[in-house]
Automatic annotation (TrEMBL):
Residues 279-356 form the ACT domain. It is found in: Cytoplasm. It comes from Hydrogenobacter thermophilus (strain DSM 6534 / IAM 12695 / TK-6). Pathway: Amino-acid biosynthesis; L-phenylalanine biosynthesis; phenylpyruvate from prephenate: step 1/1; Metabolic intermediate biosynthesis; prephenate biosynthesis; prephenate from chorismate: step 1/1. Keywords: Amino-acid biosynthesis, Aromatic amino acid biosynthesis, Cytoplasm, Isomerase, Lyase, Multifunctional enzyme, Phenylalanine biosynthesis. Residues 1-92 form the Chorismate mutase domain. Residues 92-267 form the Prephenate dehydratase domain. It comes from the Bacteria. Transmembrane segments: none annotated. This is Bifunctional chorismate mutase/prephenate dehydratase.
Length: 363
């Protein structure tokens, strides 16, 4: 027992040291913030944050063999930087709500907790909040590995002149959440029908007698379950701490390949980081070989396309535009050359931006 007391004393000392360093760090961030303000620079610097994440995760591996878990380290640094940024400038971030959805989770992963969040009820409202300057950034889903593309999000880029400033890829993990502490007491399960469908096998195996009730969202299921003492909800991890519910069973979804990609939209351009992506909208005329000619520009300069998606232009019947994602930043030489050629031929409708690739691209 005495040995524990000694080690705990050592942990107390370490915590004092961590606290001292955190306070020193936030003061320096404040100074940097003042310099940025005075020189008219953007206060929020996601490219710098990316550099820090990569450096810290690498050092943790190289110096300490990854003793401290990578995911935990990511979250700790996410919060440290979120807090440091908040003393420089409080950010306002609109996202497709309600609270505790996967879009909320994506927003937290990108901005941390020290941000003013504005949950809104439609994707259009997210774009609107940013467009009107009521939010600095917006977070929207753009594609899921099982359900496909969120067309509505793509269409919003035709309507609004916002830029893509970042992306987040989140594994869709579903959990059984409840006030209860034991599975046997669960008589009813509430959730959105997609979530129920994805967990059907687990339910049949583990709670075959439970009554299943559909709700309009996984967040709503949590609200209902909060008031009950015989029920559980299927929802995200963020929902568990938003609603203070116990996780009775983890990762009960079927597919291990269920990921959703979210976009961070804003009004600014991002610097080159060396691991970037560029998105744009192209016009392809309705005549033989035109798509081929467009793609040839990328081929000529060795630009790798990661996605190409067609959408009705909404200007004329059967007239389409193409949403293209490519590897690289628009300031990279080969990307610049390909884009210049496309611009010369009048094929670019809109540049949506170059931005750092998702930190954990798990698709
Ligand atoms: C301190 C800065 O401001 C913000 C906070 C950061 C941090 O806590 O390290 C990093 C980037 C910025 O979003 C900076 O620009 O360096």
């Amino acid at each position: 027992m005495e040995e524990i007391a000694l080690w705990r004393k050592r942990i107390d000392e370490i915590d004092e040291e961590i606290l001292r360093l955190l306070n020193e760090r936030i003061k320096i961030a404040q100074k940097i913030g003042e310099i940025k303000k005075a020189s008219g620079l953007d206060i929020h610097a996601p490219e710098r944050e990316r550099e820090i994440f990569e450096r810290v995760l690498k050092l943790n591996e190289e110096l300490y063999g990854g003793e401290f878990p990578k995911e935990a380290l990511f979250h700790i640094y996410r919060e440290i930087m979120s807090a440091c940024l908040s003393v420089e400038k409080p950010l306002r971030v609109a996202y497709l709500g309600p609270k505790a959805t996967f879009t909320h989770q994506a927003a937290l992963e990108y901005f941390g907790f020290s941000v003013h969040y504005i949950p809104v009820s439609t994707i259009k409202d997210v774009f609107n909040e940013v467009d009107l300057g009521r939010a600095d950034y917006g977070v929207v889903p753009v594609e899921n590995t099982i359900e496909g593309v969120v067309n509505y999000t793509l269409d919003m880029f035709l309507e609004y002149d916002l830029k893509i400033v970042g992306e987040v890829v989140i594994p869709i993990k579903l959990h059984l959440l409840s006030n209860l502490s034991s599975l046997e007491d669960v008589k009813r399960i509430y959730s959105h029908r997609h979530a129920i469908a994805q967990c059907r096998n687990w339910i049949d195996k583990n709670l075959p007698k439970a009554q299943i009730i559909e709700t309009e969202s996984t967040a709503r299921a949590c609200e209902i379950v909060l008031e009950l003492n015989d029920a559980a909800a299927i929802a995200s991890e963020v929902a568990s701490y938003t609603y203070h519910l116990n996780i009775l069973a983890q990762n009960i979804q079927e597919s291990a390949n269920n990921f959703t990609r979210f976009l961070i939209v804003g009004n600014r351009s991002m610097k080159r980081t060396g691991k970037d992506k560029t998105s744009l909208i192209l016009a392809v005329r309705n005549k033989p070989g035109d798509l081929y000619k467009t793609l040839e520009s990328f081929y000529l300069y060795g630009v790798n396309l990661t996605k190409i998606e067609s959408r009705p232009s909404k200007k004329k019947a059967w007239d389409y535009v193409f949403f293209v994602d490519l590897d690289g930043h628009m300031e990279d030489h080969n990307v610049r050359m390909a884009l210049d050629l496309l611009a010369k031929e009048n094929r670019i409708i809109k540049m949506l931006g170059s931005y750092p690739k998702a930190l954990f691209e798990e698709s």
